[in-house]
């Protein structure tokens, strides 16, 4: 399988997130990766002080129009962190660049631990909801699922809470859903998968949190999903890939800003 993927996210030059994660992971899985950068930041925004940010919303429009003129077409769309309403609108404008059967995977990267990231507000939630409705697969964490459905966030939750969250997402019209970060059992983290039915994959939980793991998960998920078209297999692969990247980082206290996913890249081209 060799897919031409359009991915839309920012370039955080330092911090192992967004495009600096998506590009190597999807390329290692033997895909052609075409980027549409939404912003250029000196670092990511979580923990670095005085980072710089150049908003590329206007440039995005020009890039999209040029690709239209050149008739460049994509097998898949994968969107991650987008910095404002205009960038989400621009992402929606890329739809004419997709082939008819293109797969659209949307990570509504906007919130965690019960709160929106600092850049976002309720208008942004409505915009990203519109983008998610266009997606074939969405990859929210629990907090993002709460914002998308208007559900109260519960740090401690049981399976009933997760089931009702999944059903609310489906009622809104989202198609295939991978809900990340459920804490139902001790020492395990679960990813719920809503395809035709609801299943889950779980693995060991690491108590320390790391930045950029959502992007590592999403990128490795996209790599596997484009190859297998199987939601469970792709979730399992991405969960294990992300866990391995975290484990590769745990013994290095100076590496607080991301995970060492580079050490796991060989997993993406096994058998290729
Ligand atoms: O990993 C998500 C992400 C991507 N890009 C930027 C971010 C974040 C998370 O906060 O700040 C700029």
What does this structure look like?
This protein is α/β, with parallel strands linked by helices and 272 residues long. The protein has one domain: Ribokinase (UDP-N-acetylmuramoyl-L-alanine:D-glutamate ligase), CATH 3.40.1190.20. Helices cover 36% and strands 24% of the residues. It has 8 helices and 11 strands. The chain has helices spanning 19-28, 57-69, 85-92, 122-134, 142-149, 159-172, 213-228, 231-247; strands at 4-12, 32-41, 53-55, 74-79, 98-106, 111-112, 115-116, 137-138, 176-182, 188-194, 198-204. The strands form 2 sheets. Strands 3-2-1-4-5-8-9-10-11 form a 9-stranded mixed beta sheet, with helices on both faces. Strands 6-7 form a two-stranded antiparallel sheet. A hairpin with a 3-residue loop joins β10 and β11. α5 (142-149) crosses α6. The N and C termini lie close together (9 Å). Bound molecules: 3-hydroxy-5-(hydroxymethyl)-2-methylisonicotinaldehyde. The site of 3-hydroxy-5-(hydroxymethyl)-2-methylisonicotinaldehyde (PXL) has 14 residues, from β1 and α7.
